[in-house]
Design goal:
The chain is an alpha/beta fold. Helices cover about 45% and strands about 15% of the residues. Strands 3-4-5-6 form a 4-stranded parallel sheet, with helices on both faces. Strand 3, helix 3 and strand 4 form a beta-alpha-beta unit.
Length: about 220
């Protein structure tokens, strides 16, 4: 997504805990479970690139296990990153957006937010809550020309899905009406659209990018 926004002409910063960022993108180390690091990251981006007008909240972790085996630590780790961490980022971003009377908030959820998934009660709960966050934000700040929307990807070809095995991926392909996994470009293009002027009257929406897997939910 950082590359897609960069190639579309945006000035882009990307936060990370390890690894790096693409060329032409400002890299900022940040753990969104720490409010101090979130504030420092925004301070750095604002100093080097100017006010943050578009936020894509894409950080996420999983701690999958069945409910009866799920520990408090399994629950808290996922909620603190996927939900509370996103809250920290959006809260910091909204301050400057409100003053500027412009902003685009894009929250990356998941098809399991509405479908559900065994072994992912913590993950699906955290991702479902982002829908309520976007809709409440829309009602609070919509008159300030700030939109808040949710992208809900299905099964996307990434390092995470690559370890699932051919048989499991083939099973998913049977369940997906499109007959294939999605690509990261599919998700990036959805985020680009929601950030564009063409989506200025869309807010509080859930945009599925799942090949039809979750339709009707």
């Amino acid at each position: 997504m950082a590359e897609a926004f960069r190639d579309a002409g945006y000035r882009v910063a990307a936060t990370y805990r390890s690894g790096g960022v693409p060329d032409g993108v400002l890299g900022v180390t940040c753990d969104i479970t720490d409010q101090g690091q979130v504030d420092q990251a925004f301070d750095q981006v604002e100093a080097e690139l100017g006010p943050v007008e578009v936020v894509v909240a894409n950080a996420g972790v999983t701690k999958d296990t069945l409910l009866m085996r799920m520990s408090d630590d399994d629950w808290n780790a996922v909620i603190d990153t996927n939900l509370t961490g996103t809250f920290r980022v959006v809260r910091r971003a909204s301050k400057k957006m409100t003053r500027a009377r412009f902003g685009r908030v894009i929250l990356i959820s998941s098809v399991v937010a509405l479908l559900g998934s065994p072994g992912q009660i913590n993950y699906s709960s955290s991702k479902a809550a982002l829908v309520g966050m976007a809709r409440s934000l829309t009602r609070e700040l919509g008159t300030r020309n700030i939109t808040a929307n949710v992208v809900a990807p299905g099964f996307i070809e990434t390092d995470m899905t690559a370890v699932l095995g051919d048989d499991l991926i083939a099973d998913y392909n049977k369940r997906i009406p499109a007959g294939r996994l999605g690509s990261v470009d599919d998700v990036a293009r959805a985020a680009l659209f929601l950030a564009s002027d063409g989506a200025g009257y869309i807010s509080g929406a859930v945009l599925p990018v799942d090949g039809g897997l979750g339709m009707g939910h």
